[in-house]
Amino acid sequence: MRYLSRFALLAAATALTSPALAAPQSVPIPTLVKQVTIPHTVFKLKNGLTVIVAEDHKAPIAAVSVWYNVGSKDEPKGKTGFAHLFEHLMFNGTENLPGDFDSWLQKIGATDNNGSTWFDRTNYFETVPAGALDRAMFMESDRMGHLLGAVTEGVLDNQRGVVQNEKRQGDSRPGGLVQYEVYGTLFPDGHPYHHTTIGSMEDLDAASLADVSNGSATGTVPTTRCWSWPAT
What we know:
By secondary structure, this protein is of the alpha+beta class. The chain has one domain: 2-Layer Sandwich (Cytochrome Bc1 Complex, Chain A, domain 1), CATH 3.30.830. It is built from 10 helices and 6 strands, in the order ααβββααββααααααβ. It has a 6-stranded mixed β-sheet, covered by helices on one side. The radius of gyration is 26 Å and the shape is globular.
């Protein structure tokens, strides 16, 4: 009798259960991408700078992001790691803003300020109060055009040490050396992705002030910039 009661309960539960939902149909990624729209304006200045403005009035802040069309892919043989080193040098002040560049950003209330380098690009970014947007734009333009006069042998040695320490930290992690084998195997010698962005210790040791001043010879002078920010 107990077995019969259990069977009856199971049958009743089955009858009350709604039919299984049909599996959702997959949607092509291009279709999904078209459904995402972020209103923005794009224009180009006479100096070649491309500007992207996306307005968002939820908070009285402005996010500034500057992208340089240069990365480790532009480094010639014997100059690996220079794009990343150059990124670090641009945090050490300019001719008009000497010293630590971040300290100047902090004075205007900037947060989330940092930068990064990869194969195809170098970028810098910060979030500032809306009233400090003009100042942030001036500061970015200043390190774009007035950097070299602030780079001394001491500054170069200091940032070379920082970059090499980052390399040691990365290499000493479990599996940290795998990246060299991966890129070296996937991309043949001479390919722009054959070497990693962090570069080699030997090349970094050989970096000189002449290399920094003649960045065009090493491929580390940016030729295209993209400047974007959400306006409040």
